[in-house]
Amino acid sequence: MSTQASAVQTPTPFKPRIFSGIQPSGGLTLGNYLGALKRFVEKQDEGIETIYCLVDMHAITVWQDPAKLRQQTREGAAAFIAAGIDPARSILFNQSQVTAHAELGWIFNCVARMGWMSRMTQFKDKAGKNSENVSLGLFAYPALMAADIMAYHATMVPVGEDQKQHLELTRDIAIKFNNDYGVNFFPVVEPLIEGAATRVMSLRDGTKKMSKSDPSDQSRINLTDDADAIAAKIRKAKTDPEPLPDSVEGLKDRPEARNLVNIYAALAGHTVDQVIRDFAGAQFGTFKPALADLAVAKLAPITAEMNRLMADPGEIDRILGEGAERADALARPILEQVYDITGMIRSRRG
Ligand code: AQP
Q1: What is the model's pTM?
Q2: Which CATH number fits domain 3-197+312-342: 3.10.620.30, 3.10.150.10, 3.40.50.620, 3.40.50.720?
Q3: Which of 212, 233, 288, 298 is the catalytic position?
Q4: Among 161, 309, 159, which residue's Cα sits nearest to residue 224?
C-alpha cells in the first residue's frame, strides 16, 4: 500500500538506527522470539545503535489488568535481557516512561488519514465483528507505532511479517509530514523482515498467526513454558498424515507441516531447504521429538535466565528507568523540533 503519492523522496542524512517494540499484552511467545526478539539481538550484535521498547501504551488498546500489565512488562524486559539484549549496548525501556511517544502520536493522529487507518488489516482482525465497541486507541494504534519509530529518527525496524502494513503506514505518515510542512525531517524507514520464521503460525491452526492473546494456550509456545510443556505442545501440534516431503515445494498446501519445518529451521539457524534435506520422508513421529528437543535446548536457558531476573523486579525497573532516561534524551530534542515545525509556542520556562 502506498497511500501518499509523494513529491519528497527523502535522501538519508539519517544515521542508521534501529527501533522496535513488543507489547506486554501477555507472556512472549515463540513467534515473538523468532520473528522479533532473536533478530533484535542479532542487530545489536552487528553493532548498529539499537533501541528496544516494551510498548505498554499499545498494550492498553485492549483491556489489561493493571497488576498483570506490570508483571508482563517486567517479564518482557526479562525476556529481552535473557535472550541477549544488553541494556548497556541497547536502550531498553517501557514506552509510557518516555512521553515523547504519546505526544508525537497525537501529532501523527493529525497527519494520518482515516482512509489509511481503516485499511489496516490488523485492526480489522482484532476488531472483528465488534468494531463499534473496540477502543479508539486500537484504531489509532499504527499512528502511535509510527511515533515510536519516528521519535528516534529510526531508519530500520526489525519486525515479523504481520507488521509490514503498519511500517508502510509509518512511511506514509513520515512522507506526508515532510510534504505538508515542506521539510525533510523524518526518515523513510526500512522494515527488516528476514529469516525462516517471519510468521510463526498457531500450533492448532497453520493458517493463523501464533499470538500471545490467542485464548488457547495450546496454540503457542510461551517463553515461560518448561521442557515438559514445550514437548507436550509440539507432540499435540496439528499436522497432516503425510511424511515430510523431499523438496520445499512439497510443503505447499501443508500449512502445519510448513510451520513446524520453519520453526525448526529458525531455531537451528538452518535454511528450510537444509531441514527438508535432513528429514525427507520422515514421519511426524520422528520429526516432532527432534523439534521438541531443539526447542527445549534453545529456549530452556532463556527461560532459566528470565526466572532468575524476575526474582529481582526492582533491578528490572531500574534498568527500564535508566533506558527511559537515555531514550528521552534522544527523543526530546526531535520532538521539540516537531513542535517548532508545526507552529507550537514553547515558551514555558524550566
Ligand atoms: N507469530 C509470529 N511470528 C513472527 N513474528 C511475530 N510477532 C508477533 N507474532 C509473531 C512479532 O513480534 C513483534 C511484537 O509483536 P507485538 O507484541 O507488538 O504484537 P503482535 O504482532 O500483535 O503480537 P501478538 O503476539 O499477536 O500479540 P497480541 O496477541 O497481543 O496481539 C512484532 O515484530 C511482530 O511482528
Answers
A1: 0.93
A2: 3.40.50.620
A3: 212
A4: 309
